[in-house]
């Protein structure tokens, strides 16, 4: 059995021993990816497949629970609509939402990998025939980015970084592209960061963002796991919640930076799941 290691960053590594999954549907046309903003500052806790019809088990598993529209249970949100939750030998759970119904699974208890377990419908928080797919570890109370476990995707397009903004304590915004002199102090850093699988398709969240100031790696924001804690959703072991990360419409919150007197060189790097990278560097003079 293939095994993967997910490393959550910021000096703390949490290891998950995971088996590979198969595609849960016959299309890999993505609508949303893990950690993306949906609704009002809410994380996508899995991924959405566009115009999917046939739904397949991603691995050998047994039926844990069948959810009906508008009624979530435990850590599973009601936004899934009609959904099936399968339990696998490695302790992981795969969730299949926005189904036409759960009756297609019939009286079966177990499902083999790639076997048909249902069809998409219009019961969840998505468009008709979209499949909502999630992978969770209920013991650790985390959702895992499915792309870490699914077959590799082909993508040669690097993420985009635009509209980098510094916001001071008085909530005054400075465009990094045109602002070269600012007062020393604390600033919130924002940027519009997005990725596409192909030119002209939907835009997605990146897989990892890092911020380097004067050669020092200040922080890394990984879109690898989402942790549920005290009714809040956090990216991995970071302090970034969905409401914090998406607090400024259209941009990602990249944390605070301290600009001391003199020049500061700031480098933002965005990476997608296949390793394509985009970097933007700018220099500001703090007086």
Layout: helices, strands, pairs:
Elements: E1 30-32, E2 37-38, E3 42-43, E4 47-49, E5 54-56, E6 61-67, E7 83-87, E8 93-97, E9 110-111, E10 116-119, E11 131-137, E12 142-144, E13 160-167, E14 173-175, E15 181-182, E16 185-194, E17 208-213, E18 216-222, E19 225-229, E20 232-235, H1 242-245, E21 252-259, E22 262-271, E23 277-286
Parallel strand pairs: 15-23
Antiparallel strand pairs: 1-4, 2-3, 4-11, 5-10, 6-7, 6-9, 7-8, 8-11, 11-12, 12-19, 13-14, 13-16, 16-21, 17-18, 17-22, 19-20, 22-23
Describe this structure in words.
This protein is mainly beta and 287 residues long. It has two domains: 30-148, Glucose Permease (Domain IIA) (Distorted Sandwich); 160-286, Immunoglobulin-like, CATH 2.60.40.10. Helix content is 1%, strand content 41%. A hairpin with a 5-residue loop joins strand 7 (83-87) and strand 8 (93-97). The protein is elongated.
Brief characterization of the structure:
With 287 residues, the chain is an all-beta fold.
């Amino acid at each position: 059995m293939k095994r993967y290691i997910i490393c959550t960053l910021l000096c703390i590594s949490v290891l998950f021993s995971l088996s590979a999954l198969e595609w849960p549907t016959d299309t890999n046309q993505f609508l949303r990816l893990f950690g993306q903003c949906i609704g009002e500052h809410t994380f996508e806790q899995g991924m959405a497949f566009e115009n999917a019809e046939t739904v397949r088990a991603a691995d050998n598993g047994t039926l844990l629970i069948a959810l009906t529209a508008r009624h979530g249970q435990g850590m599973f949100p009601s936004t899934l609509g009609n959904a099936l939750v399968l339990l696998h030998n490695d302790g992981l759970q795969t969730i299949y939402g926005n189904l036409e119904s759960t009756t297609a699974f019939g009286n079966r208890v177990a499902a083999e990998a790639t076997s048909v377990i249902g069809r998409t419908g219009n019961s969840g928080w998505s468009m008709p025939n979209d499949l909502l797919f999630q992978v969770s570890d209920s013991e650790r109370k985390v959702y895992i980015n499915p792309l870490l476990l699914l077959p590799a995707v082909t993508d040669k397009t690097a993420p985009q970084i635009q509209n980098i903004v510094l916001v001071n304590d008085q909530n005054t915004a400075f465009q990094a592209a045109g602002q070269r002199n600012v007062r020393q102090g604390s600033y919130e850093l924002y940027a519009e960061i997005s990725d596409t699988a192909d030119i002209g398709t939907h835009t997605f969240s990146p897989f990892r963002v890092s911020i380097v100031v004067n050669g020092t790696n200040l922080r890394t924001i990984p879109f690898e796991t989402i942790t549920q804690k005290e009714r809040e959703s956090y990216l991995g072991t970071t302090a970034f919640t969905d409401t914090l990360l998406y607090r400024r419409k259209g941009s990602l919150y990249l944390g605070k930076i301290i600009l001391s007197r003199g020049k500061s060189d700031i480098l933002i790097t965005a990476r997608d799941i296949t390793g394509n990278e985009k970097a933007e560097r700018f220099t500001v003079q703090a007086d």
